[in-house]
Amino acid sequence: MKFRFKLGTALALAALLPVAANGAAMVAPDGVQIKDGTVAGSLTGAAGDPAAGKKWFVGRKLGNCLACHANSDTASEPFHGQVGPALDGVAARYSEDEMRAILVNSKQIFGDATIMPAFYSIMTDKRVRKEFEGKTILTAQQVEDVIAYLKTLKE
Amino acid sequence: MRVSRFGVAMAGALAGGMFIGGHALALPEGIETVKVAPPSKDHPLPEIVSGWNFRAPETQALQSDDFENPGFIWVEQGAELWDAVDGSEGKACASCHGDAAESMASVGAEMPKWSEAKGKPINLEQQINACRTERMGAKAWKWESGELLGMTTFVRNQSRGTPVNVQTDGPMKPWFEKGQNLYYARVGQLDLACANCHQDYYGKRIRADLLSQGQSNGFPTYRLKWQKIGSLHRRFKGCMKQVRAKPYKVGSDEFLALELYVNWRGEGLPVEAPAVRQ
Q1: pLDDT band at B138, cuts 50/70/90?
Q2: Is B197 part of the contact surface with chain A (CB cutoff 8 Å)?
Q3: What is the pLDDT of residues A28-37, one digit of tens each?
Q4: Interface mutation vs chain B, best among A129, A137, A138, A139, most B CBs within 10 Å
Q5: Of A64, A83, A127, the CB nearest to B245
Q6: Spans of all domains in chain A
Q7: pLDDT score, position B2
Q8: What is the pLDDT of residue A155?
Q9: Is residue A68 less than 8 Å (CB to CB) from chain B?
Q10: How far is CA B210 from CA A67, B73, B193, B277, in A?
Q11: Is the peptide bond before A117 cis (omega within 30 degrees of 0)?
Q12: What is the pLDDT of residue A63?
């Protein structure tokens, strides 16, 4: 009886832990460590996909990075924002781990007054609309995809 | 790396000015200025600029000609309702208020006003419905109904050209402060406050939209996107939804307080209702 109960708990816990495609455990939003402006290592344990990342970058429902940032590499998309700096050559300005920290929680890098949303943090007590409650703007996989794409913006 | 907020605001302001200069368009009909100086040094904006200033020349042109301006369909509807008898008392608005051009010449610039009877501020939509239910024995019009939009636009249009001037002291003070808190409160999954967009980055493009100061002097406003006229509270809802926040309800105390505060941020700007926006 006791043994079965324990096994059941273990199984339930395993089901709760998000698991990346390659089997490595994902870092949950509240478990991300930002140290010296960096988040060391992939949130999923694997590298992202730059082609997918480009989609999230321009997609209005996802990153919508283009709403605020111009980017010559996506010149075919209409309407680039002017709120943040252009992201041309961003990979030459920041390391991968720095970019990850910016995406996870921009406020810890640019200060509390920044307009740039935190893409991998959960907002509580902010009147978040029901369909977005308890969710991050991007998933861990999507954050890694965007980073993989940003790494291609070398000049 | 850190962008200076003030620098950004100033750059934005310049862009706004150049926009007019670049196109040398006539000002909106009935309006002598779309930019005024802030009334005091503690005002959060370095200059107060109407939303008209930030719109594309085609959109500006629609507002600059009353015959082209689609918002006038609602002004006309309101004018008809003004004279129409309704309710158990057998009265029309005109029965008590006479010629709207005289009796309503400035109220549109002064709302929301303190209502002694209600013990709270009352805005134009609420005042119209209060007259209907309490003085005409008629049913309240639904928020965003054609009738309420028509009457609100008609009454506000009587104040066109009159500088916005709202009471913020005395009993209005706590409401003003509540509105101010809401304006600076970060909400939604995107965690943004009104001020993040309309104070820090006006004059900058956010995707397809050129950010304005989010001024209220043009409301009710005809939106090309809505293909109809809409209330200020509807616009507030839209701005909250886009940051993925649960909006407050139209006509709620929260939006009433926000309306008072937003109107104050635009103090001195002439009322433009009905404005035309993208």
Answers
A1: very high
A2: yes
A3: 999 999 999 9
A4: A129
A5: A127
A6: 21-150
A7: 34
A8: 86
A9: yes
A10: 11, 27, 17, 11
A11: no
A12: 83
pLDDT the model gives residue A13: 45
Q: Is B5 on the interface with A (CB under 8 A)?
A: yes
Q: In chain A, what residues touch B190 (CB-CB under 8 Å)?
A: 117, 137
Residues of B recognised as catalytic: 239
**A85 contact B CB<8A:** yes
A102 in B contact zone (CB under 8 Å): no
Q: Do the Cβ atoms of A123 and B5 come within 8 Å?
A: no
Q: From chain B, pick out residues whose CB is under 8 angstroms from the CB of A83.
A: 201, 204-206, 211
Homologous superfamily of the B35-69+168-277 domain (CATH): Cytochrome c-like domain (1.10.760.10)
- Percent of chain B whose predicted confidence (pLDDT) is above 70: 91
CA distances from B212 to A136, B102, B188, B206, B251 (A): 28, 32, 21, 10, 24
- C-beta atoms of B188 and A129 within 8 A: yes
Domain A21-150: which topology? Cytochrome Bc1 Complex; Chain D, domain 2 (1.10.760)
**What CA–CA distances, in Å, run from B180 to B43, B202, B260?**
12, 18, 9
Please judge whether A60 and B207 are an interchain contact, meaning their C-beta atoms are less than 8 angstroms apart.
yes
CA distance A108 to B201: 21
Q: Is A46 helix (H, G, I), strand (E, B) or coil?
A: coil
pLDDT category at B143 given cuts 50, 70, 90 is very high
Mean pLDDT of chain B: 92
Q: Does domain B72-157 have CATH number 3.30.1120.10?
A: no
d(CA B176, CA B198): 18
Domain ranges of chain B: 35-69+168-277, 72-157
Mean pLDDT to the nearest integer, A104-119: 97
Confidence of residue A25 (pLDDT cuts 50, 70, 90): confident
B212-224 exposure pattern, b = at least 16 Cβ within 10 A, e = fewer: bbbbbbbbbbbbe
Mark which residues 24-63 of A lie under 8 Å from B by CB. Answer: 60
The confidence score (pLDDT) of residue A61 equals 84
